[in-house]
Write a structure and sequence with these properties.
Function: Converts 2,5-diamino-6-(ribosylamino)-4(3h)-pyrimidinone 5'-phosphate into 5-amino-6-(ribosylamino)-2,4(1h,3h)-pyrimidinedione 5'-phosphate.
Mean pLDDT: 95
InterPro entries: CMP_dCMP_dom, Cytidine_deaminase-like, DHFR-like_dom_sf, RibDG_C, Riboflavin_Biosynth_HTPR
Number of helices: 11
CATH architecture of the largest domain: 3-Layer(aba) Sandwich
Oligomer: single chain
Bound molecules: NADP nicotinamide-adenine-dinucleotide phosphate, zinc ion
Pathway: Cofactor biosynthesis; riboflavin biosynthesis; 5-amino-6-(D-ribitylamino)uracil from GTP: step 2/4
Number of strands: 13
EC number: 3.5.4.26
CATH class of the largest domain: Alpha Beta
Strand content: 15-25%
CATH superfamily of the largest domain: Dihydrofolate Reductase, subunit A
Protein name: Riboflavin biosynthesis protein RibD
Largest sheet: 8 strands, mixed
Length: 336
């Protein structure tokens, strides 16, 4: 996977349109979904839109919730992510991305094909990017195979005519469906199985309740046929919870799919642990999961003891490390 990790987010009507064909701004999804999008915004380093979206909708592209702004500040980030406008011409000086919220976020205007734009953002330290449209920008990034995750909120109305992102043949994989009041959220991922599930584990790590001292980790347990058996993240049910521990807690250890399953985790499973008697390495061995794919290895906490990965490998578990995911896995731990 290349950086930044790209989340494309859009609201569509039942008939698949992003807007109607009138000049007025059409807000398709309801307040609960707008708040969900606000939470996603708070979890990225930059938000990107096309020049026509700025001209048509005049968005501010800011995190709205004061609490989410404060949480970002506490982590050493700007209160709101960098605002990126893709355009071959200057943005109108009275556009709200330039005039509003300057104390909260910067705005840059970029021009160029998706690969170049992503390289430039990565060089500026953007690890997670959110693309909020419009149609052409979504289409171009999907066609360039530059989208890792697509979040589509389907609003309960028909629009009849307007922009839509047709014309890109691409196979996605459904990772979640969620009802958000009157809207339905569909989450899709793209890419090969190991890439999409490890990226999903890293995204789940962003959901961890904040902690000044403990790691924020995400994990997904996937059967050989691609069925998601369980997911977990640090401190999900209790402050001492580890991601792998809570995911495996949800599973019946007699499930015949576990030996053929893979556990994807953003951090190497712990091999030594002070908080509870059983390490995640031991939980994985007890559950009989046959394969572990991980993003990030920390130097061992206790010198001279074998790491979790080493113990798993010794016990016959296939262990795969994907170092190109390290920055994505580290992102929710930047305060450490
Ligand atoms: N429902 C939703 O979630 C949602 C979200 C956002 C927008 N929308 C709707 O989508 C519509 C706008 O979509 P759209 O397809 O017309 O436009 P768009 O994708 O917002 O913007 C396209 C324009 O951006 C500039 N651009 C795009 N890629 C570029 C690149 N790589 N380098 C430089 N410039 C680039 C070009 O214009 P210039 O170079 O001339 O600037 C291009 O014409 C509006 O109706 C809006 O309401 C809906
Ligand atoms: Zn652990």
């Amino acid at each position: 996977m290349r950086l930044p990790h790209v989340l494309a987010s859009a609201a569509v009507s039942i008939d698949g349109f992003l807007d109607d064909d009138t000049p007025e701004r059409l807000v398709l999804s309801g307040p609960a979904d707008l708040d969900r999008v606000d939470a996603e915004r708070a979890g990225v380093d930059a938000i990107l839109v096309g020049g026509d979206t700025v001209r048509a909708d005049d968005p501010r592209l800011l995190v709205r919730s004061p609490q989410r702004r404060a949480d970002r500040l506490a982590r050493g980030l700007r209160p709101s992510p960098l605002r990126v406008v893709l355009s071959s011409r200057p943005v109108a000086p009275d556009a709200r991305v330039l005039t509003e919220g300057r104390e909260l976020a910067d705005t840059v205007v970029l021009c160029g094909p998706p690969d170049e734009v992503l390289d430039r953002l990565a060089a500026h330290g953007v690890v997670r990017l959110m693309i909020e449209g419009g149609a052409r920008v979504h289409r171009d990034f999907l066609a360039a195979h530059a989208v890792d995750e697509l979040q589509l909120a389907i609003a309960p109305r028909l629009v009849g005519a307007g922009p839509r992102f047709t014309g890109v043949p691409l196979q996605g994989h459904l990772v979640e469906t969620r009802r958000v009041e009157q809207d339905v959220l569909l989450r899709y991922r793209f890419g090969d199985a190991d890439t999409r599930w490890l990226a999903e584990a890293c995204s789940l790590a962003e959901r961890c309740p904040p902690s000044a001292s403990a790691f924020s980790v995400g994990c997904v347990v996937v059967a050989a046929d691609g069925t998601v058996l369980a997911t977990g993240h640090s401190r999900r049910d209790d402050v001492l919870d580890h991601a792998e521990e809570v995911a495996l807690r949800d599973l019946d250890h007699a499930d015949p799919r576990l030996p053929g399953a893979t556990i994807y985790t953003s951090l190497e499973p712990c091999g030594q642990r002070a908080s509870r008697p059983t390490t995640c390495t031991q939980h994985i061995l007890d559950a009989g999961v046959g394969r572990v794919v991980m993003a990030w290895r920390e130097p061992p906490l206790f010198v001279g003891t074998p790491s979790g990965a080493a113990r798993l490998a010794e016990a016959g578990v296939e262990v795969i490390e994907r170092p190109e995911f390290v920055e994505l896995a580290r992102r929710p731990n930047l305060h450490r």
